[in-house]
Amino acid sequence: MKKKKKNKKKIKKRKKILRKRLVIKKQTKRNINKKIKKRGLTKKIKFSKKKNYKSKSKDNFLLEIIRFQQKLKPNFKIKIDLFKLDRVIQGFFQKIDDKIQEFKKLRLEEKQRLKIEEFERKEKEKRAAEDEQKEQENLILKIKEKELKEEKKLEKERNKDLKKFLRQEQAIVRKEQAERQKRFLQELKIEQQIEKFRVREVKELEKLEKISLKEKRDDYSGLQERIDKLKQKYQLIRDQKIRERVEALGVEVQEGDDRETLLQKEKNYTLERQKIENALESFYRSANSLVFQLNKRHITRHMSIFRCIDRRFENGEVYIKWDEVPDDEWLILIYIKDNSPDKGIVIEDKSNPEKNVSNEYKPSEIFKASDMMVDSLTQLLERERSKKDS
Questions:
Q1: By the 8 A CB rule, do 312 and 276 touch?
Q2: Are 291 and 262 in contact (CB under 8 A)?
Q3: How far is CA 31 from the centre of its chain?
Q4: Residues 283, 334: contact at Cβ < 8 Å?
Q5: How confident is the model at residue 284 (pLDDT cuts 50, 70, 90)?
Q6: Is the pLDDT of residue 381 over 70?
Q7: Is 159 in contact with 305 (CB distance < 8 Å)?
Q8: Which of the four, 78, 145, 230, 366, has the lowest number of CB atoms within 10 Å?
Q9: What is the percent of the chain where pLDDT is above 90?
Q10: How many Å apart are CA 343 and CA 257, to the nearest integer?
Q11: How many C-beta neighbours within 10 Å does residue 287 have?
Q12: Is 170 exposed, middle or buried (0-12, 13-18, 19+ CB in 10 A)?
């Protein structure tokens, strides 16, 4: 279909050109005939290649003269082909138009080439940036995988250390329990010895009474004094043992305190210690669990572990510290305000050297206190890690 249309267009163009040529020829002929009429010539003149006029009559002398005159005239004829001239002009302008179109086309191609080059350059830069980003991501991924492997290795070693620590902790607990049991057994032995002294006293007194009855002494008062002295001696021994035991507990003992007073003070002290121990029980368990979890999951290989020390029965305190530091360099200290469970629990925080914080809690606010201890110790671990990284 396209070829047919093109052929039709070409045929139409050719027809137009032929029509123009015919029109130009007719015009030229008309112009020549007009010129001949003006000069007075009746016959039409035909142009030939030789450009000579031929007359039909040769007899007339005048005609020969005229021919001679015609021969003398310059035989120049400029034949102008307007169609060719039109074609030449059209071709000239067509060339100029072709050059202009070619220039436009070249300029458009150059613009497109520059656009393509710019697009290719941007694509190359984009690909290079993507490749670089991928390389960085792969590098970061490799670093993270390496860190993960190291963390897994550290976790295994940490688990080993924790198991070892737990075994040591259990050994320490067993040792403390053994010491308490030993102390209790010693107290029982002392009680048994006191009881033996009492039994021995009774037996000796009975024996003395029997001897006195056998001998039937008249002076019975001297014997009674000896019996009373023995009773006082054993009584003093028992009171001294009770006094030493009460003083060992840290209770103030006065010189005039008798046996009943000492026993009452011991009983009161034991009851107070039990109250304090019971009041601090939930806080101690929370602190101990926190220390265990931090040692298990967050303490690295080159860091010291935490310790939760229970001194509730001795002085009513529970504290958390680093393993290698002395007891007075604690991080968190938990105790009862004024040794009265009704007044509340005090938690002192020295984990941040820049500021020391002291907070008071009710016995029912165990979760709030636990959150505070978790925040303090995790921030302490972050500071320790940042110091090691720097």
A1: yes
A2: no
A3: 101
A4: yes
A5: confident
A6: yes
A7: no
A8: 78
A9: 1
A10: 31
A11: 25
A12: exposed
